[in-house]
Amino acid sequence: xxxxxxxxxxxxxxxxxxxxxxxxxxxxxxxxxxxxxxxxxxxxxxxxxxxxxxxxxxxxxxxxxxxxxxxxxxxxxxxxxxxxxxxxxxxxxxxxxxxxxxxxxxxxxxxxxxxxxxxxxxxxxxxxxxxxxxxxxxxxxxxxxxxxxxxxxxxxxxxxxxxxxxxxxxxxxxxxxxxxxxxxxxxxxxxxxxxxxxxxxxxxxxxxxxxxxxxxxxxxxxxxxxxxxxxxxxxxxxxxxxxxxxxxxxxxxxxxxxxxxxxxxxxxxxxxxxxxxxxxxxxxxxxxxxxxxxxxxxxxxxxxxxxxxxxxxxxxxxxxxxxxxxxxxxxxxxxxxxxxxxxxxxxxxxxxxxxxxx
Length: 358
Fold this sequence. Notes:
The chain is built from nine helices and 22 strands. Strands 1, 6, 7, 17, 18, 19, 20, 21 and 22 form a nine-stranded antiparallel β-sheet that branches. It folds into two domains: 68-287, Jelly Rolls; 288-355, Jelly Rolls (Sandwich), CATH 2.60.120.10. By secondary structure, the chain is of the alpha+beta class. Helix 3 packs across helix 7 (174-180) and helix 7 runs antiparallel to helix 8.
């Protein structure tokens, strides 16, 4: 059993000091806190007094032993419209990259993820019903070609056309078009946020194609690789396979790779929305992980798979025949498949994540 803290990622969409309660104050946007071995942000190891040892989790284990990446996320504004490639696409494209070219694929692995809301959380995830997208786009001047593509089922063509049509005037019309399409007020407000924050980003015009959802604390959305999404705002817990492959279509200052993103899409695949609450076992269909966010009490976690226990609020301890440790908020106990059974005791809010791939 090892004790770690998270590695802070300061992306521009993050909330200023949004993760400080689990790390430290920087006075800058804090977007993600990573718990894992991914080379983009391996977790620092701590000693029994919660002091850094100078090592990282990646110094002890590779991605095969630690197959999951866990994050705390604080979004102050919409993240990029993005898609994660499936395993065969990621592996093939990663192998084809040349050293003298910009990096698109950071690793050869699939990134399948789940976001569990720690507070009210808004997101675009998956495709909106086609008739709704058409009604929305018909309220935006000059989008007839995109509408025709949607009617004929040529989604890739619709995406390319909308990116060509993404002028500031059309982007500014998003909230009014949402009203004309009779979308609820909370969705109109979400599109107003997109228009205000990304007035010159052509990818904003893709958001009418995406479904909107709001999660209450404890509820989750599971996003398989191949499903487009853009988290809008809120604080949440992310659990994913250990990959940072992100191919973007818009709402970002980072590079956009339209052809790669379209190739990574799986149009018939849908996200799973899990209307749960804290304490429920969250195990999406075909997921490589299972999660319980425990408010209080005890939970036994069995040997034979990778396990991470992350303290979000309050107090918690983890005990096995070989070791015992107490956690501070923003620290986690990590156990690989060879470590023995462990007992988690919680008085607050603790996330228990286990790999389902043995």
